Amino acid sequence: MLKDEDRIRIGIIGCEILKKEIEQLTKDDPDIVHREYLEFALHVDSAVLKAKVQEKVNALEGKVDAVFLGYGICQSLRGITQVLTVPTAMLESDDCIGTLITPKEYEREKRVCVGTWFSTPGWAELGIDGVIKELHLDCAKDQGYEPMYFLRMLFEGYSRCLYVYTGVDAEGGYVEKSKAFAESLNLRHECRDCDLKVLRDALAEAKRLARKARSA
User: With b meaning 16 or more CB within 10 Å and e meaning fewer, what string describes 137-154?
Assistant: First the structure.
């Protein structure tokens, strides 16, 4: 058995949308010594997201050997590992949906139905209010425009809500919440399984980086 001083130390900095899946993957992992999840929708402002991720990862310098960054590119994080002071492995995907079903399947599902809203346990839990927050649809509320007015306009081009089973579904009734979201916007509701390969690969890479840092 490894002594504590010999064990690699991995820190997790991730998006709260992926918290349930990352926690499920790492819950019994003794190498994880730090877990922190940032508020969803930071990617709406790319500069804010990049600055916040950089701040949180760099704050772990000297405390961990490597970081498992629970973010995909999310419009603004391409190349960020090159400016971080701690060896970091990020998710090889555009966003949380590509992370949970793989980029290849993400593109395939978009071809199956162009007007698809992708739902996950994290997004199902946030529901309508989460989408309104992400898209800033409450910006004209003081002028008498309710957020749902804009939301229904934006979703006119959507016809399907595709829920992704990730293995944490039973604990929070997320499928039913996803169905309620779909019904409120008159979308047909479908479900599919996930593939956590992107998460597993990122965790494996973080451990490789940690071992490399320890042996340097």
Answer: beeeeeeeeebeebbeee
